[in-house]
Write a structure and sequence with these properties.
single chain, alpha+beta, seven-stranded mixed β-sheet, 4 helices
Length: about 140
């Protein structure tokens, strides 16, 4: 998978997020002000967009949030999610980041654990979907 980095929300990322979070999972408030200031990553397989995420700088020094991690349903189980998280981690590390946060859907926490993230022990809901805060020190 080839991964491109964008400073504005690209149409390919928008399409993936609409497909995964809105059409498939039923979220209503998918896009927000963070999209304007985030770094967006899109993964392509043979030129076709299949995965995305965004990176947001947090208020704490050297802390970043990886969010809106999505892989199109037909392309799951092939390592694209792990690859885009790895690339986002590399971007953060090169930017001087020392800590990464993820506001993970609770059902995906085992995936993030495999990527080296630990539970913060703080859970909440987003549009009635259980989430958990996770972190990884770099």
């Amino acid at each position: 998978m080839e991964i491109e980095i964008y400073l504005n929300l690209p149409e390919d990322a928008r399409m993936i997020r609409l497909s995964v979070f809105v059409a498939e999972q039923g979220f209503i408030r998918e896009f927000d002000d963070d999209d304007r200031s985030a770094i967006h990553l899109v993964g392509y397989e043979d030129g076709v967009p299949v995965a995305t995420c965004r990176i947001c700088k947090q208020g704490q020094e050297n802390t970043y949030l990886i969010g809106r991690i999505a892989v199109l349903k037909a392309h799951r189980g092939r390592g694209f999610g792990a690859a885009i998280v790895d690339r986002a981690t590399d971007v953060i590390r090169r930017s001087g980041g020392r800590k990464i946060l993820i506001h993970a859907q609770a059902r995906a926490k085992d995936f993030y654990r495999k990527q080296g993230f630990l539970d913060c022990g703080i859970g909440d809901t987003e549009e009635d979907c259980p989430h958990i805060w996770m972190y990884r020190d770099l």
